[in-house]
Amino acid sequence: MSLALVSFSCRYKKGNSTTHTQERGRTEALFRSVTCVVSVNLTLVLDREMERAVVTVGGGAINILLCKLGTMLIQEAQLLGGFRGKLQYMKDELESMTAFLQDVAERENSSRQVKIWTKQVREVAYDVEDCVDEFTYHIGSNTSGSGLTELFHRCIRFLRTAKARRQIAKQIQELKMRATSISERNSRYSGNHLISRAEGTFAAQPARADIVSLDVRTPAFLPDITQLVGTEARQSDLVKWLVDESVKQLQVMSISGFGGLGKTTLAMTTYQTAGSSFQCQAFVTVSQKFDVKALVRDILRQIIQPVDRNGPISTEDPLKGMEEWDAGQLVNILSQHLEEKRYLVVLDDIWTISAWEDIRLFLPNSHTGSRIVVTTRSKTVAQACCLDEHDRAYEIEPLIGSESSELFFRRLFGNQDNCPIALREISQKILGKCGGIPLAIVSIAGLLASTSVYSYDHWEKVYNALGFELETSPWLEKLKKILELSYNALPYHLKTCFLYLCTYPEDHKIRRKSVLRRWIAERFVTAKRGLTALEVAENYFDELLNRGIVHPVDMSFDGKVKTFRVHDLMLEIILTKSIEDNFITLIGEQHTLAPQEKIRRLSIHGGNNKYIATRKMVSHIRSFSIFANGEILQFAWMKLLRILDLENCEIARNGNVESICTLFQLEYVSLRNTFATQLPMQIGNLKKLVTLDVRDTGIKHLPPQIIHLPNLSSLLGGRRAYNYSGLYPISDFWGVHIPDKLGNLEMLTTLAQIEITYSTSCYISELGKLSELRKLGVMMFVDDDLSWTSLISAIAKLSSCLRSLLIWRPDGAMNFKILDTLSRPPMFLKSLNLRGKLGKLPEWIGSLANLTELTLRATELESEEHLRVLARLPSLLYLRLHHGAYTGTEFTVFASEFPGLKLLAIHLGEFQALNLRFEEGAATKLQRLELSFLLQASIQWRSGIDFLPSLQEVLVHAEPDNTSEGMVRFLADEASRNPNQPTVTFKAKQWKPTRLRTDHRGNL
Q: How many CA atoms lie within 13 A of 289 on its CB side?
């Protein structure tokens, strides 16, 4: 058929004028009958804008599907043929399904039937999206052109997609029947009318907003909980603040922390202890949904009735008829009673800022030293409650190891000494699951104490089946509800993002940036209101962080979380929900596969993969992650895969990744820290690829086809740190070679690390074409003036977009003469890393007013004057002078220098000596000082640590000899005179921490 069309095209060109006219007429008719897409070009442009708008409104991946369907209905009007109406039906039905899913997600409790319907609706939506993605891929994109060329391509496209159109017609008919069946089943079985069928669409009944939710939290004031370990010091500190009468204005104290940490316990015991210092007091629970009138009535009952009982006997109840009063009357009476009194009100469990603002309005500032105590799980709410300079925000911390053990063994055996030796090891594993949460420790100890079997095997079974116990054991019912409150309170879009975290194994250190990129690839996050998708994802993560349901592990000094963990018990909660909803399928020692389900997202934590090593089982997988070694699956079968994460997988080698280039949906690929040494030549087929991570691999050369990836945003390569799996010796380092025509990657925002050699230096100018680039890392293995001039010229062109820059000269000196000529420095640069001999700093560094992080290594700055320019940078928070960065012998920080610096790290090379001095008024915000010494290196202190008012820690890395220990003792003596009492910690060169004897604060 294609050959016939070619022949027709040739005859059209060679025929006489009459034939020409006849053929033209037939051509125009064929053009009108086969495609009408030209007429919708403007509509398509408008539709793309509509797509962006719709995505911003929606709260889940189904909204993306609705946009796809809308685009297809317009763009492919003729190709869809007779089943266009069926597709329109599915689009309308999915809109109702979306509303249904969101309504159900906002309910804390749903019937089993509702959960089943929810799951069925979600599965239909997934299948529709799979169908649309396959069809879109097979029919290809519209071609542009004019006249016969366009006609020819459109005809060919029409004929080639005939089979795909027949397949999608059949699939959509089946999906329509499934959707109809779900709707009819809903009508048959929804006798309780929790879900109603109206006009052919799904609809969930709205929850009543005026109902006061039950307080399912464990009462914190039960006798066995008021004696929690570690509360005495906390309580004493808070009581002192409450009873202090020196400040007469109304003050607020917030107590924030993760559910189960004992916020309510601490507030209640403090309330009881300090109550006698106030004329009246009230303790009320707010919770997620509350009735303002009921809350005010509760406060009035506690404030008025005790006063009346202590005074003369009244024949009339002052609160008689209170149930009939409106909100205005209640607030006025409460304000009158509190106006001249010194009162204490505890508002337990506030969830939102708006709730606080509503309540705060009817608690007057009597200027009598009144106090309000607020407990909340949200750091954002805690901060919003404490805006006055006299207010106080207190973040409650988990119990430390010794406190956790004391509480656990006291509950089971009376004390730790009575615990059998055989149970001590498994006890520590169980306590590790509890994560220092008192409620978890008490609850699990109660579960273990409920049986007379005190054996290692029994306790290990409880440990391994803790997720099941949370679902079934009455001893853990209240703990489960406490944890579920944190999940249920999340908005729809955050629930999906949070559920996704159970992809990672227990205790896994999760990299924040990796998660953000994966959320975007999964369509959980989209650009909105002028923010990029990555910026929106950052906001989502910050919300989870502020709610305390993810916990930072490694932090950067600009306040960003580098790695984090999910609490083990919270992980069990979301794991259960994920399995129920078929959101993620896990394979590992404690997880088994449900073979009747379609696998949408697969994460392998261990175990045997043979049960899913079939095309049918893996054909619907969208996300695949592997955290254990085993048999590699056939990636070619995962035709709809979007995310492939093989990081740290030792069995991932070149032959195993060849087939990924057939996966047309791939957006995120990580081969980090694997044995891969090259990328497939066909990688240019991955037109949707956004993130490619090949760091810490043997990949040095990128295939030329890499430049044909129009959506590539993050290209991460090179090896510049020790590979912890031991794949390569520590002396090896490299970047990926810069390819020709790199400037074609117009969407690139992150490019690190690239290697420029004599064979690739001619491509340096391509960097200047990357107008979206935010992060650039360059390793220069050349020293000729032309190459350095090209690099500086490219950086100048990127001056308005760059935020992070690394220039590394691994085997020689940087070309300072040319580096100093940068005419347009990147003024918005936040992070700068220079590695290589300079002798002095370029003058343009002093103009980087937004620079927050600076790292220098082997720059060999000789004069103290070279550091003066750094001392005046107004935004600098983090300064690291690695080995060889500064070779001078004097370093004095004068008053007013380094005004914002929070961390200073100085690493000295062999036989180097440095006199370090801080004058009074210098580095007033410095919190952490790191000092590192190689052989025979030393720092002579003349004075200074006692002048640093914000200093919290001094960390010393050195050889464990008498000289270094003597130096540490000298530093500890200096620190003891600092009013802030910073800790001084010594770590041996081999990075094994060995603390000298310290007091309870860690001071020497």
A: 14
Compare 193 and 231 and report the one with higher pLDDT: 231
Helix/strand/coil for 844 = helix
Q: What is the length of the chain?
A: 1004
Question: Does the residue 925 lie in any domain?
Answer: no
Range of the domain at 113: 35-204
Q: Tell me, yes or no, whether 121 and 69 share the same domain.
A: yes
AA letter at 210: D
Q: Summarize pLDDT for 387-429 with one digit per residue, the tens.
A: 888 888 888 888 888 888 888 888 888 888 888 888 888 888 8
Q: Clarify whether residues 434 and 536 are in a common domain.
A: no
Copy the structure tokens of residue 947. Answer: 């002048």
Q: What is the pLDDT of residues 529-562, one digit of tens each?
A: 888 889 999 999 998 988 888 888 888 766 788 9
Among candidates 578, 575, 574, 549, which has minimal Cα distance to 564?
Answer: 549
Same domain membership, residue 497 and residue 361: no
797 three-state secondary structure: helix
Assess contact for 969 and 944: CB atoms under 8 A: no
Taking a C-beta distance cutoff of 8 angstroms, is the pair 794, 770 a contact?
Answer: no
Q: How far apart are CA 41 and CA 146, in angstroms?
A: 14
In a domain, 899, yes or no: no
Q: Which two tokens stand for residue 309?
A: 């009982």
Backbone angles phi, psi at 126, to 5 degrees: -60, -45
Instruction: Give the residue from 481, 507, 526 where a domain finishes.
Output: 481
Please check whether residue 655 lies inside any domain of the structure: no
Question: Phi/psi of residue 943, each to 5°?
Answer: 175, 170
771: tokens are: 């107008």
Summarize pLDDT for 817-830 with one digit per residue, the tens: 999 999 999 999 99
Instruction: Please count the structural domains in the chain.
Output: 4
Least Cα distance to 704 among 682, 735, 688, 689 occurs for: 682
Q: Point out the least confidently predicted range of 74-88, 190-204, 249-263, 744-758.
A: 190-204
CA distances from 600 to 171, 182, 323, 452, 611 (A): 18, 20, 53, 43, 15
